[in-house]
Task: inverse folding
């Protein structure tokens, strides 16, 4: 999954630690999301959307490979994050 997190954070001149504090997660979690090594679960995605006053879809979006990989699968709940 792709995201605009680094750009949104930089526009506000926040460090990764600043955003992590606002989300109550570690700086390493923010780094992993920004570098697309970790997809956040819904609770964290909603928290990030609230902080930036955007919808989840305005921050996170599938890349083309993700759409192809998941085209045949039924949608299921995403309760927690996913390592990539």
Result:
């Amino acid at each position: 999954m792709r995201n605009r997190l680094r750009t949104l954070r930089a526009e506000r001149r926040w460090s990764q630690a600043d955003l992590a504090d606002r989300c109550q997660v570690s700086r390493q979690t923010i780094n992993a999301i920004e570098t697309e090594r970790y997809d956040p679960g819904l609770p964290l995605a909603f928290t990030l959307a609230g902080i930036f006053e955007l919808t989840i879809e305005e921050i996170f979006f599938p890349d083309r490979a993700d759409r192809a990989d998941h085209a045949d699968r039924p949608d299921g709940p995403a309760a927690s994050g996913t390592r990539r």
Summary: The helical segments are 5-11, 16-23, 27-34, 42-52, 56-59, 64-69. The beta strands are 2-3, 38-39, 60-61, 82-83. The chain has a mean pLDDT of 87.
